[in-house]
Amino acid sequence: MKKRLLALTMSVLMAASLAGCSKQLSNEYITVKQYDGLEVPKAEATEVTDVDVENSINGRLSAAATTEEITDRAAQDGDTVNIDYKGTVDGAEFEGGSAQGSDLVLGSGSFIGANGDYKGFEEQIVGHNIGETFDITVQFPENYPDMANKVAVFNIKLNKISVQHVPELTDKWVKENSEKSKTVEEYKKEVKKELEKNNKESVKSTLQNSVMEALVDQIEVKKLPEDQVKDQMASIESYYQQMAAVYGMEFEDFRDQMMQMSEDDFNKESKNAAETAVKRKLACELIAKKKNLEPSDKEYEKQIKEYAGDQDVKEFKEQVGEDVLKNTILQQKVAEYLVDNCVQVEQTNSTEEAK
């Protein structure tokens, strides 16, 4: 996971003199021994079943659910309750046993269930009203870490009761939520096409990742431009500093606790990832020059606009870096070429075991 996380970064810009020969491509930094006919694991789109369509539609209906706050009755199964609770065993609080403003769907089985002579956590909330404070007693299951079979008392305050209203799949709902379909049957076909498209895109992405990995294996390094490797390492560290900020943590704490890496380990992994990224970029530039894959300015602008989405293109370029975007687009085009010219190989048990 650590290596995968470190590998998910954009590569740096570099300039290289390009030269090529019939089967190999080379410059002052690297030699690409092979790029056509790279062998990669076979990838095929899975069939979209009726169950897949139903699950996708149910997810969309759930996302469109509305919430109604309940004030005139006690809590019942299916309700979402907001509670404060404090758990004790033999009068002493225990770690993880207390929370404030916790949402819980009654009947979901999310909390401790019935065990022996003790009812479950959720079923003991049923029947209580907003504003009530009460105690319940539960017994932890025998496979619960550090708390096996212990009896705990939870003091609970019921803050709020609400219920989720999930819309039904009707022609009316379809008309209101689809630009293409007007009936339920049409909508099911629409969703199926979307899922099939997603599956194909997933296969495409898998193959592109595979050919790029196979390409890196075909690269012989003479030397790497140190400034580019250092820039890439700085980019990697900057990325994780931003991640740490999202979690409200200092980078060193994020690295130690979330990534579980020492400073030396992080620097080593960063360098490895940076060198791989630079090698990949050098190889892609060589292949693009040899096969005339360099996108035109018009193609670059079109792709950057797609990447930007609803964001202002100028602001997007300033935020990400236009050179970085162009290199990313170039890599994408090279990856597409490599996929078109790769050899997909069936994976046997012996091959998988060898890995």
Written description of the protein model:
It is found in: Cytoplasm. This protein is of the alpha+beta class and 355 residues long. It folds into two domains: 2-38 and 218-354, no CATH class; 67-165, Chitinase A, domain 3, CATH 3.10.50.40. 46% of the residues lie in helices and 19% in strands. The strands form three sheets. Strands 5, 6, 7, 8 and 9 form a five-stranded antiparallel sheet that branches. Strands 1-2-3-10 form a four-stranded antiparallel sheet. It has a two-stranded parallel ribbon with strand order 4-11. Strand 6 (80-89) and strand 7 form a beta hairpin. Mean pLDDT is 90; it is low at 1-22.
What keyword list fits this structure?
46% helix; alpha+beta; four-stranded antiparallel beta sheet; 11 strands; 2 domains; 355 residues; five-stranded antiparallel beta sheet; Chitinase A, domain 3
Detail the topology: elements first, then pairings.
Elements: H1 2-7, E1 19-20, E2 25-26, E3 30-32, E4 39-41, H2 50-63, E5 66-70, E6 80-89, E7 92-105, E8 133-139, E9 151-165, H3 171-177, H4 184-217, E10 219-221, H5 226-246, H6 251-258, H7 263-290, H8 297-308, H9 313-320, H10 322-340, E11 343-345, H11 349-354
Parallel strand pairs: 4-11
Antiparallel strand pairs: 1-2, 2-3, 3-10, 5-9, 6-7, 6-9, 8-9
Give a concise summary.
This protein has 355 residues and is an alpha+beta fold.
Largest sheet: 5 strands, antiparallel
Please report which band the strand proportion falls in: under 5%, 5-15%, 15-25%, 25-35%, 35-45% or over 45%. Answer: 15-25%
In whole angstroms, the N-to-C terminal distance is 17 Å
Q: Roughly what percent helix?
A: 40-55%
Going by helix content, strand content and strand pairing, the class is alpha+beta
Contiguous helical run count: 11
List the secondary-structure elements in sequence, H or E: HEEEEHEEEEEHHEHHHHHHEH
Calculate Rg over CA atoms: 28 Å
Overall pLDDT level = 90
**Number of separate structural domains:** 2
